[in-house]
Design a protein that fits this description.
Elements lengths: L13 H4 L2 H11 L3 H4 L1 H7 L1 H5 L6 H13 L6 H5 L4
């Protein structure tokens, strides 16, 4: 007997941490699902570059930063979100 829970993403995944709209925007920008499965790519892009992606607003950017920080991809949520000069 199959369960609906078998199709849910793991709670500690980027897929679960962000909205479907933000996920679609990231996948559309990158061209495939690799960006969702490898959050280190997003960490390397930096907040300024991620913020330039269409349909990624401040709330989505903050959720992404929270996830990256909680999983150790970035050292500081606030430093990653700080605008580059």
């Amino acid at each position: 007997m199959s369960s609906a829970k078998t199709n849910l993403p793991p709670a500690n995944s980027l897929r679960a941490a962000i909205s479907p709209t933000a996920r679609k925007a990231l996948v559309s920008f990158w061209g495939n699902e690799e960006i969702i499965n490898k959050p280190e790519i997003i960490a390397e892009l930096g907040a300024d570059n991620v913020a330039r992606i269409n349909r990624i607003g401040n709330k989505s950017l903050f959720k992404i930063a929270e996830f990256l920080n909680s999983q150790g991809y970035i050292n500081s949520l606030h430093d990653w979100l700080a605008k580059e000069k």
